[in-house]
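Input record (one chain):
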Amino acid sequence: MDKTIGTMGARDEGAIGQFQGKTMSLVYCDEMTLYPESIIDMIDTRLSNPWSMGFASMNPSHPNHKVKQWIDMADAGDPNYYALQFTLDDNPFVDEDYKSRIRNSLSGVFYKRNYLGHWCLAEGSVYDFFDRKVHVVRRPPRAADYWIAAIDYG
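The corresponding structure, as predicted from the sequence alone:
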């Protein structure tokens, strides 16, 4: 039996036609958290043979991402899913100076996701210095002449 090996892009929703109608035995997706969810769902349905396998690499995204749900199923022991997590520090081929530069140049949600490998919400990414213990008070101080209240709707 002949196998066809192909390369397809998943940049946007319009790429879904490349995946429709195919039966895939093996698929590798790079930076899968950047794929539109419709394409992730389509790839999942194309792995229809009992021996079909999908592999993906990515940086973490928000904790409700479709791929994170698969990782959670692997962590829960579902035999159809397998997950490995690596951080930059796990790579012995990356220069220590580079690791240090990346470690020291990222902050907030970018540091948590792209360096620590945490699946976290972007909440607080703009004001990543916000500390509820410091910036929230039960009662305002009494010695103020006026008060300013602000809401950032994002």
